[in-house]
Amino acid sequence: MTLLFRNATILTMDKAHGTTPFSGDVLVEGDSIAAIGANLEAPDGARIIDATGRLLMPGLVNAHMHSSETFFKGRYQNMPLEVWMLYSYPLLMKGPIAPRLLYLRSLITAMESLKAGVTTMIDDFFDPPGFDFDRLKLVFDAYDASGIRANVSHCVIDKHVFDTMPYLRDLIPADLQAQIAGPTITPDDYIAYCREVFASQHGRSGRLGFMVSASAPQRCSVAMMQACLALAQDKGVPYHTHVLETKTQAVTGPEFYGKSLIGYMRDIGMLTPNTTIAHSIWVSDEDMALMGEADCSIAHNVISNLKLGSGIAPIRRLLDAGVHVGLGTDGMSSNDTARIFDVMRFAGLVHDIAGPDTDRWMTAAEVLRSATIEGARTALLDKVTGSLEVGKRADLVMIDLSGYDYMPMNRLDHHLVYCENGSNIRMVVANGAVVVEDSRLTTVDEAAVFAELRELLPAYMAEHAELEKLNARFDPYMREMHRRATIQDIGIHRYQGDLPLWPGRNSAG
């Protein structure tokens, strides 16, 4: 397919132009950008698209999400991570989700993402209790059908859940502990599984990739993490993990290892340019320096961090330390949408309350970089996507600038971060193909997918409700663990406001 966008406002996000827009044409040939300039000649057979009054910008990058949660959007509130996981990732299970629902769940995740202007999605897939190639292939099949670009992992944990958080072995009665079996996968088994996926799925359709994910340093053995990183480096893909999302995890490092989790990762060789860390909230200045020196990346999931009460990440200091920062939604159970434009707005606002020095606040330009080219860097895809440049893949979004959100037009980068919510998207192109046009997906029959989900989901959701009841027996122990961890003074404070940590009031009387 050849596309020629005429007379567009162009925001390239490349080194030459950054967030400074200019007028011109964009030529797409096949899967790549062939030319950017004024008055480009239309090749024979090209589809010419009048982009007058429209913006062309890079497709957005969702640097961290979990498709496993998509059916739980709008389901939970007022739960910290450790309690919330009881219900979104139950300890007591009755088997994995049915294959057809697995496919549809992945498909609708990609569908919602594309309609929100996300052309690249990083899915840290989790499918307990096992590692089944045919099931993971269903995820790739769905993303292939949708047209999205995606890096997909299959997240591994090889420690017993009660050994991944402090105090639980003492808090949970022995009879309840006995109901939960530990994982049995070995590093050799997991690496063999990953190699099988790399052999058949990595590079599929020129836009799907596999990455390696050990869930978190406290959830995995040293042997598992080091084997995962070695494979990621060999394949040139990210080593994707979660670190210091909550205060409980900040307490876990000293409790288990006598040091912070970042210090522990450094000591076992896990901080590298391939390392992408989701969250990175409860990091110290020393942690941030180590991450910057190692050229690490993080995925900043600001909305999820707020919904789960995890805290506010020190983004300015992470940037100052040289850490690459992308933006992620996290799963749709802890964020509830796939809209990176929402994440951009929160990221552009919430850090202003970190202190009164306005020179240290996040700028709209920095937020846009995190949503595009820096987001691509966290996925090691910055040579492929994240900016509009000749030779890069044609992943772009066309936005109508004629509506309320741009009247009057002041600074385009400000409008995109503080005003835009995706409602002005008129076209999305991924890997050179038009995947959304006039608010409709061109690759998937949306009505048919929704109809099938309405038929299949009630039984699944009823089954999940029963699992929630079963797992509720662990709730008081998780809450007590959370309370014990959060009352500790660890020299870092990532909560906001003056509410007492535990029972008490803001004022007397």
Notable features of this structure?
alpha/beta; TIM Barrel; 9-stranded mixed β-sheet; 5-stranded parallel β-sheet
Task: Characterise this structure.
The protein has 509 residues and is an alpha/beta fold. It has a domain of 328 residues: TIM Barrel (Alpha-Beta Barrel), CATH 3.20.20.140. It has 18 helices and 18 strands. The strands form three sheets. Strands 1, 2, 3, 4, 5, 15, 16, 17 and 18 form a nine-stranded mixed β-sheet that branches. Strand 7, helix 3 and strand 8 form a beta-alpha-beta unit. The longest helix is centred in the last third of the chain and has 26 residues. The protein is globular and about 75 Å long. The C terminus is likely disordered.
Summarize the structure.
The chain is of the alpha/beta class and 509 residues long.
* Estimated structural class: alpha/beta
The CATH topology label of the domain at 61-388 is TIM Barrel
CATH superfamily of the domain at 61-388: Metal-dependent hydrolases
CATH architecture label of the domain at 61-388: Alpha-Beta Barrel
Q: Estimate the strand proportion.
A: 15-25%
Q: Report Rg.
A: 23 Å
Low-confidence stretches: 505-509
Q: Report the sheet with the most strands, covering strand number, pairing sense and barrel closure.
A: 9 strands, mixed
Chart the SSEs and their pairings.
Layout: E1 2-10, E2 22-29, E3 32-37, E4 47-50, E5 54-58, E6 60-65, H1 81-88, H2 99-115, E7 118-125, H3 133-146, E8 149-154, H4 168-171, H5 174-177, H6 187-201, E9 208-210, E10 212-213, H7 222-235, E11 239-243, H8 247-257, H9 261-267, E12 275-279, H10 285-293, E13 297-300, H11 302-307, H12 315-320, E14 324-327, H13 340-350, H14 364-371, H15 373-378, E15 396-400, H16 412-418, E16 425-430, E17 433-437, E18 440-441, H17 446-471, H18 475-486
Parallel strand pairs: 1-4, 1-5, 6-7, 7-8, 8-9, 10-11, 11-12, 12-13, 13-14
Antiparallel strand pairs: 1-2, 2-3, 5-15, 15-16, 16-17, 17-18
